[in-house]
Design brief:
This protein is mainly α. The protein is built from four helices and two strands; from the N terminus they run H-E-E-H-H-H.
């Protein structure tokens, strides 16, 4: 939400690989697109797929079911869990920093 964006600052504040390449916002729930391999925020790609069922980076057909199946694969889940942990640690550090100010 807006309050959360205020807490984490603008896109200059977080590492580039935490940036959703569609919305340019902070990734909160990372998912990987099956063909292009871009990491995006689940809410952002879900909204996109409601309008057109294709990967926005290469225009290949992509359905929510294909996205879920790809992201259920153990090696993909492992990579995304590591990224999610990294984002969570960064958010926690930002919250602690904000409390000290």
């Amino acid at each position: 939400g807006a309050a959360e964006e205020d807490l984490y600052g603008d896109d200059e504040d977080w590492p580039d690989h935490f940036t959703d390449p569609i919305s340019y916002g902070l990734i909160h729930h990372p998912v990987e697109l099956p063909i292009s391999k871009h990491i995006v925020d689940r809410a952002v790609i879900t909204r996109h797929l409601l309008n057109e069922e294709q990967d926005p980076f290469n225009r290949q057909p992509l359905t929510p079911a294909q996205l879920d199946a790809h992201n259920a694969q153990p090696e993909v889940r492992q990579r995304l869990e590591a990224l999610r942990a990294e984002i969570s640690a960064w958010k926690k550090a930002k919250r602690e920093e904000a409390m000290r100010e």
